[in-house]
Every structure is written in C-alpha cells, then in structure tokens.
Amino acid sequence: MASVQHAEGDRRDFLFLATGAAAAVGGAAAIWPFISQLAPDAGTIAAGAPVEIDLASIPAGGQVKILWRGKPYFVRNRTEAEIKSAQDVDVKTLRDPQPDAVRVKEGHAKWLITAANCTHLGCVPLGNQGDYGGWFCPCHGSHFDTSGRIRKGPAPTNLPIPQYTFVSETRIRITGAPTTA
C-alpha cells in the first residue's frame, strides 16, 4: 500500500506541475499581444524616430548619404582646407547669408550635416563637385560651397541643416527635420 501512495503522490505532483506550466505558457501567450502592441511599429519608427549615425567610418573629405523619414541627408567630414574655404567667404556676397559657424556645431567644425535636396526643385546634388568644391546640382546648375551655401545657380537658399546632436565624438543623432527661419 505504501508503494501505491508513493506512486499516486508522484503522479499528483507531476500533474500539478504540468498544469501550472501549461497555465503559465497559456497566460504568457494571452498577454503577449497586449505587450507587443505597446512598441511602435516599423512605419512609426521610420516616420519620425531619431536616427544615429556612426561618424568613425567617414574619412576626411568624404561624405555619406542617409535616408531618414524618407528624405536624403548628407553627412560630410570636411577637411581643414574645406573648413577654411567656407570660413573665409565674405557672407555679404552670399544670396542666403549665413556664416559657416552657424551651420555646424561648436567644436565640431569638420562635420557638416545637411538635407540632401537642392532648394530649387528638390534634386539631389552631387558631392565634392561644382565651382566651389561642395555640391553641384546637375539638373539645373546650382553650385553649393563646402558649407552647403548656395553660391551660383537657381537655388534660392542654402542646403537646410537638420536638428541634430552629438551623442559622442563619433556619433550623431538626427532628431528633427530642417527648420526654416
């Protein structure tokens, strides 16, 4: 009789544990849809979540084009010569007068982040080209300097600067679209 009670106790313990495990798995499966809906979907993230860019892989004089919120942006690592060229411009001679210092973050003059659409009709200019070594829009002939300022051609304004911050010395976070004054 003792062995029968022992077997029934083992069976009862097993059934108790199996029922508890099934209830836990079922409860988690029932709750998971509610938990997962709290996270934003990919469309929401693409529509407005900030984007971080690693700057370490961009060589001096090089640039990358990224897409954020469905729009292209340039991230350019300017050389000392490009920075000097941009700083030496007489701002009074520019169509859209902005000193280079207001187009970059203090202490990070080598990094220029701009929207990558020509302000004339929205074409994407070619980098490291044009009469001023910045960007050239082959569609209608706008020339931008190494600070993204319009120097020649039909574009009415400079390449816009998005809202961004330096997360570290080698990472930036774009948090907002360019603002117009």
Short description:
With 181 residues, the chain is an alpha+beta fold.
Would you kindly provide a written description of the structure presented here, covering whatever features stand out?
The chain has two domains: 1-39; 43-176, Rieske Iron-sulfur Protein. The chain is 28% helix and 27% strand. The protein has helices spanning 2-36, 42-48, 80-87; strands at residues 51-54, 63-68, 71-77, 111-115, 126-127, 133-137, 142-145, 150-152, 163-168, 171-176. β5 and β6 (133-137) form a beta hairpin. The longest helix is centred in the N-terminal third of the chain and has 35 residues, at 2-36.
Q: Which of globular, elongated, flat, extended, rod-shaped describes the shape? A: elongated
Write down the domain tally. 2
- What's the name of the CATH homologous superfamily of the largest domain? Rieske [2Fe-2S] iron-sulphur domain
In the predicted model, the low-confidence regions spanning at least 5 consecutive residues are none
**What pattern of helices and strands is seen along the backbone?**
HHEEEHEEEEEEE
**Helicity range:** 25-40%
Structural class: alpha+beta
Mean pLDDT: 84
Most strands sheet: 4 strands, antiparallel
Number of alpha- plus pi-helical segments: 3
* Straight-line distance between termini: 91 Å
| Beta-strand content | 25-35%
Major beta sheet, strand line-up: 5-6-7-8
**Can you tell me the CATH class of the largest domain?**
Mainly Beta
Number of strands: 10
CATH architecture designation of the largest domain: 3-layer Sandwich
- The Rg value, from CA coordinates, equals 29 Å
